[in-house]
Amino acid sequence: MNAKPSQPHPAEWTETQGLLPSAPRDLPAGRHQFHKEQMMTQIHEDLRTSAAATASDDRPVAVPRHRNPFLRRAVLVPAAALALSGAVVTTVVVSGGDGDGGRTPLATGPALTTTVGTADTQGAPRLLDRISLAAAEVSEPAPHAGQYVYIASKVADTYPKTVDDKTTVVSEKLHTRQVWNSLDGKDGWLIEPGETSDKGMTLSSDIPVSSAYNDLAALPTNPDALLRRIYRDSDAERDKEVPRDQAAFVAIGDLLTESYPPARLAAALYKAAAKIPGVVAVDDAVDAVGRHGVAIARQNDTDGERTEWIFDKKTLSFLGERNVVVEKTPDSPFEVGTVTFTSAITQRAVVDANKQVPSQAG
What we know:
Elements: H1 37-56, H2 72-76, H3 79-85, E1 92-95, E2 108-110, E3 119-120, H4 124-136, E4 148-163, E5 166-172, E6 175-182, E7 188-191, E8 201-205, H5 213-217, H6 223-237, H7 244-256, H8 263-273, E9 279-286, E10 292-300, E11 305-312, E12 318-325, E13 339-351
Antiparallel strand pairs: 1-8, 2-5, 3-9, 4-5, 4-6, 4-13, 6-7, 7-8, 9-10, 10-11, 11-12, 12-13
């Protein structure tokens, strides 16, 4: 696999406006619970300053990332809490010989927008049942000790950016993200423009239930027992401002993205998701590379955003996910239809070594 595939713009990116010149940006701290623009600006500045200071000391640096499954606590804790406490909450330790040096800021352009798909409150259980059956039929070889799960994806974030006291909402240029994760989750590697240097950074995870293969394989495959486990762990991690059902839905999504779940577990996760109140089916959703599909989604009423898991309309295979603003909230800079995060899985494989891409295997 080419480690530097082409980077097409998302299908819904405004075609009449080109990307702005590359410029230093504040690191986005999260896309949930956005409050006043001044508060958001402070969050970004705090994260940027904290990361730079840590890197300069050559100590492990925590890199904020919205949809990184290794960062579940960053997803479950509201941005407001980060701003008020001045703390960076994360579960990923990023370190390595390259430190934080060599990181190149990504170009940004106009905010990514989309047409909000129609939500069907009655169709989710039926669609999830079909997706579960399709997932159960997937036949993939089980990885063995010493191997790594490799996930390549295309991602982009949207966030408020302030320059000379003027705040605008911008989206990153769509870019490639590559993650390697050992089966036990204790060793891994991340390469992502704007977040790491070209060589990448070390990842390790310490969350109770991570997307590491061994952790996934140990989870119960009974949907009721699995959902109880999901609620238990998300309750322990989430800030109380985050609705409990939303936290559980996000947690399941995290276990489906940068991971290699056994077929029986994937099927059980979808059946468990069907039992979460507020889950809906969406008639049309588009992933980061422009593939149209159907979606399973849930709206967070606190921030007006809907998290969508996108599936191929024919095969029902998982394509990616995105967050879409479906309801304008008073303190949010985002308008209805803004895509605050988008992703598309482009390759999922098991390789024999850390940093090895599938084309190098065998």
